[in-house]
Known about the structure:
By secondary structure, the chain is an all-alpha fold. Helices cover 59% and strands 0% of the residues. It has helices spanning 15-18, 20-26, 30-65, 72-104, 111-114, 145-149.
Amino acid sequence: MPAKFTPKTVVILLPSNIGIERCAQWGVADLVLQEISLREGQANDALHTIWVKLADKAVLFHTTVWSAKSQAQPTCTWAQVHLVDRIIHLNVQIYSKCCKQLIHLSADNLLAKFLKATMVVADPNMHGQRNNTLAWFWCMSKEILPAMTG
């Protein structure tokens, strides 16, 4: 009986999977630069999606969850929030995979320019935080938000 073909588990023979040295031996070293370009574009696309979906999530919270007048309304909205969370998680996985592959290609110097984020939560009551400004999506007026969300 032949083995079942499962495309999701097949490793594609890209330079990051077979090694730069082997690519040089096989005479396909120019594919390394092409894969670096591919991974850089893929990482940029994933980061863009993450940024957009984080803004979507903030708008959902600002317009629907926090301003809900009943118990049922935020329950429906939480389904939308969880969907956005799943999309963000998927794109974080894609970005992480791109980073690992770029490291295998010795192109990890590109990683520093992609992602610079702080994990500090702004608290206006905390010492030294009074003059910090919020991100643009927290400062949007309620007149603009319905036009953006559909």
